[in-house]
Design a protein that fits this description.
- It is built from one helix and four strands.
- The protein has a four-stranded mixed sheet, with no helix packed on it.
- Strand 3 and strand 4 form a beta hairpin.
- By secondary structure, it is mostly beta strands.
Length: about 60
């Protein structure tokens, strides 16, 4: 039996920057893709970008 969350995880495109408002964290402070809590952050053009250091998933906060 396939879990619905597993399907959602497979659909995550690591090249895309997700908007936090549309895609909030499943678990606060954890990556939706690999569940890591290790991020690097940057600000460019007034946009705060959070990138997972494990898998590279990005969200604009």
């Amino acid at each position: 039996m396939i879990n619905l969350e597993e399907i959602k995880e497979q659909e995550i495109d690591l090249d895309k920057v997700y908007d936090y408002v549309e895609y909030p964290d499943k678990v606060s402070g954890r990556c939706d893709h690999c569940n890591s809590s290790y991020f690097k952050s940057s600000v460019k053009g007034g946009i705060f970008l959070r990138e997972c250091r494990e898998c590279g998933m990005k969200k604009s906060i």
